[in-house]
Design brief:
InterPro entries: ARMT-1-like_metal-bd_sf (IPR036075), ARMT1 (IPR039763), ARMT1-like_metal-bd (IPR002791). The chain is α/β, with parallel strands linked by helices. The protein has 16 helices and seven strands. The chain folds into two domains: 101 residues, no CATH class; 248 residues, Rossmann fold (3-Layer(aba) Sandwich), CATH 3.40.50.10880. α10 links the parallel β2 and β3.
């Protein structure tokens, strides 16, 4: 299990380098009062040098967190599993900013200013304008381009930008590519239900929505269930409000093709062909094998579940350091439907690489596991359910 107590490690850097910058951004972006500011600063001090204080008495989800943290309360933060500790950090940040408390800050997404700025950027107009050029392409070629956009859209993660520099790294490589299998399976199950577990809002969610529109428009999916977070999480993770903002951005885009996608998706939502769903599990500090039965039942029978991004990948294959040549299928046998992971590499976890690719990456002298320059499309089929 990865932990964040090794100075210099990636996980250590998230707590000791990324979070302090994030906290500054949050406190600079909104005029929180002294109580919220002090609570956020206390959280930063606790999470970088203190022990895990048990949840306060008034947390509405106190009982769940007490259970999830059983055996961890009182330990230094770095000794908790990395994914668990990050999840608790974001839960506590919402508490500190008053997100759940009656008052002026209730329901205010502390990351909204960053999300809004990203969505408003001129670069988004340029990205959406590219859709006009895709309209004339044959379906298969357009499909490839849309999958690629959704995949690399994951690189635009705002939290990653905090350490990668303003523009982020350049896209370079696909370390595993099951995209042919992805399209072949969707063709085989044509007209089925596809689940998409979203990751980030803004520049990732837009290409995700365009891909969803393609699946619906071409009949590869008759229905799409789009899963988002129930509350702000990991800085830029998409919530239902972010889906609406992205839909508006599409509908109002100068690009005719983008605006048409926005209108189609709007209709798809009103017709319940596209449903936006959420579940408290998506902000729980748990891996997918531990998902509750009601959510498992929702994925069961889907023709395919597409899991976007790095965090979903960590929860899918486990936040542990396995030999990278471990078969992807071995690590996702717990999942109730066929799965497709679309992810840029932004943490140390990776499986499903072939030996030659691994040797090349290890010999490259780069931080390939975490620098976001590599991406993967990995598919595992569960045919008995489709
Ligand atoms: O899920 P995402 O948005 O692709 O990535 C989330 C992420 O940036 O957050 C963690 C650090 O906080 C990393 O493991 C990971 O790279």
């Amino acid at each position: 299990m990865i932990r964040s107590d090794v100075p210099g490690s990636f996980a250590w850097g998230v707590f000791h380098e990324r979070h302090p910058k994030l906290v500054r951004q949050v406190l600079d972006a909104l005029p929180y009062g002294p109580a919220e500011r002090a609570a956020v600063e206390r959280l930063l001090a606790e999470s970088t040098g203190g022990v895990l204080e048990p949840p306060a008495d008034d947390l509405h989800d106190r009982a769940e967190w007490l259970a999830w943290g059983d055996g961890l309360w009182g330990l230094p933060w770095g000794e908790a599993p990395f994914l668990w500790a990050e999840s608790w950090f974001y839960r506590r940040l919402l508490d500190a900013t008053g997100y759940f408390r009656p008052g002026a800050w209730q329901g205010i997404d502390p990351f909204a200013p960053m999300k809004n700025a990203e969505l408003a950027g001129a670069v988004v107009d340029e990205e959406l304008a590219a859709l006009d050029g895709l309209a004339a392409l044959p379906d298969a070629q357009r499909a490839r381009a849309l999958l690629t956009s959704a995949l690399w859209g994951n690189r635009a993660d705002l939290s990653f930008g905090l350490t990668a520099g303003a523009d982020g790294p350049a896209a370079t490589d696909l370390v595993a590519d099951d995209s042919a299998q992805f399209w072949a399976e969707l063709e085989r199950t044509r007209g089925g239900r596809v689940c998409v577990v979203a990751d980030n809002a803004g520049r990732e969610l837009l290409p995700d929505l365009v891909l969803i529109d393609h699946l619906l428009r071409t009949g590869l999916a008759a229905r799409v269930d789009l899963y988002v977070k129930p509350q702000p999480y990991f800085v830029s993770d998409a919530t239902a409000a972010d889906v609406l903002a992205a839909l508006d951005r599409l509908r109002a885009a100068p690009s005719a093709a983008a605006a048409e996608v926005g209108r189609r998706l709007w209709r798809a939502m009103t017709d319940e062909v596209l449903t936006v769903r959420t579940h408290s599990f998506f902000c729980a500090p748990l891996p997918f094998p531990d998902m509750p039965d009601d959510l498992r039942a929702e994925f069961t029978g889907a023709a395919m579940t597409v899991l976007k991004g790095d965090l979903n990948y960590r929860r899918l294959v486990g936040d542990v350091l396995r030999p990278p040549t471990t078969a992807f299928g071995e690590t996702v046998a717990h999942f109730p439907s066929s799965v497709a992971a679309l992810r840029t590499l932004k943490s140390e976890v990776v499986v499903g690489l072939d030996a030659a690719t691994l040797a090349r990456l290890d010999g490259s002298g780069t931080t390939w596991r975490t620098d976001g320059r590599q991406a993967l499309v990995q598919v595992e089929l569960r045919r008995e359910n489709s």
